[in-house]
Write a structure and sequence with these properties.
With 330 residues, the chain is an alpha/beta fold. The protein is built from twelve helices and 13 strands. The longest helix is centred in the last third of the chain and has 17 residues. The structure holds guanosine-5'-triphosphate and magnesium ion.
């Protein structure tokens, strides 16, 4: 698939030249005024998909932008291997094109090494360092069924293994049976669970500050209610020298609209990072990573399975590059 730039002193002449050079099947992708008249971007290969049409249009824009470029030039609009991989792993054409351009500008590397370097740096890694003398309340916020409770249990297991002194608490909605899994995890971790019902007062003391180093706080999955309660908790904790660190739990197999709604609603809270779950249940992990990168949010952990000990992996540039380019974390 090629995109050609044709110029003429006016539209009529440019169209005539396009037809003469590329036949009557030539399709005009775009037009632009030039100093000497008008420029057209044309192709003779009909795009097979919307994505391909978008890519061709972008190439046309590039041709128009480059005012020093000779007339009647042709550029190859075939996507690079990196772009192909990003598109098939769920990224948008715009994201793929910009990343590919940045990678091709890196000199002296194998193209895939350059791609990994660019993509690994697309997202920040969120760290959860120990804070001497301050309780960090890590609240897991996300819509129902995204994996909040299981991620909390996996995180808890990591903290306990590392000898860190933690507590477990939950904002509950009083659904019968909703707390059963978390109660079982609390027993397994040896922490128990402090539950806060919709009418219970949330205080720093009740949640475990300042004694505990960290408290893992599960939420109910009713985003609006959870956010209201977490906003009050943020104020309460900061007045007592503790901090609230909200981790957004995003399931990789959700629709982009669900992630966007969560980002928007949670923007009033202190967001420390994101936990991406269910990466084993999508073939397009690039979509959720791109959505997080667009929000300038960091990622703390990723999850690709329900094994308590094995399936929570620390985020890193290598993990991001693998997900973008290979569609899975190695
Ligand atoms: N395959 C897979 N399953 C997961 C993953 N994370 C969680 N699950 C499963 O997803 C289901 C929901 O997980 P929960 O942790 O209960 O989700 P939740 O967000 O707490 O759900 P609610 O409390 O109802 O809002 C469970 O069956 C988990 O085992 C993952 O990374 N991969
Ligand atoms: Mg839950």
């Amino acid at each position: 698939m090629k995109v050609h730039k044709i110029t003429g002193k006016d539209m009529h002449e440019a169209l005539e030249r396009a037809q003469k050079m590329h036949g009557s099947n030539a399709v005009v992708l775009g037009q632009s005024e030039t100093e000497g008249g008008v420029a057209l971007a044309v192709t003779t290969t009909a795009p097979v998909s919307r994505t391909e049409l978008e890519r061709m249009r972008r190439r046309a824009d590039e041709l128009f932008r480059d005012i020093t470029c000779e007339e009647d030039v042709t550029v190859d609009a075939r996507p690079s291997e990196m772009e192909e991989r990003l598109l098939s792993n769920g990224c948008t054409p715009g994201f793929a094109a910009v990343a590919a351009r940045e990678a091709s500008a890196l000199q002296g590397r194998h193209p895939l090494d350059a791609a990994a370097e660019v993509l690994g740096a697309r997202l920040e890694v969120s760290h959860l360092p120990k804070m001497q003398g301050t309780t960090r309340v890590l609240a897991l916020l996300g819509s129902s069924g995204t994996g909040k409770t299981l991620s909390l249990a996996k995180l808890g297991a990591r903290f306990v293994r590392a000898g860190r002194q933690i507590g477990v608490a939950a904002l509950t909605d009083e659904r019968p049976g909703a707390m059963t899994p978390l109660m079982a995890y609390g027993e397994l971790l040896g922490t128990g669970v402090t539950c806060f019902g919709p009418l219970d007062e949330l205080t720093a003391e009740k949640i475990g500050a300042p004694e505990l180093e960290a408290v893992l706080l599960d939420t109910s999955g009713h985003i609006e209610d959870d956010i209201k309660r977490l906003s009050l908790l943020a104020e309460e904790l900061s007045s007592k020298g503790a901090i609230l660190d909200v981790q957004l739990v995003l399931s990789a197999n959700q629709q982009a609209e669900a992630w966007a709604a969560l980002f928007e609603a949670a923007s009033v809270l202190p967001i420390g990072g994101c936990i991406v779950t269910k990466l084993d249940e999508t073939t397009r992990p690039g979509a959720v990573l791109e959505a997080i990168a667009e929000e300038n949010l960091a990622v703390s952990f990723i999850s690709a399975g329900s094994d308590l000990a094995r399936d929570l992996v620390r985020a890193s540039p290598d993990v991001f590059a693998d997900l973008f380019l290979r569609g899975r974390a190695s």
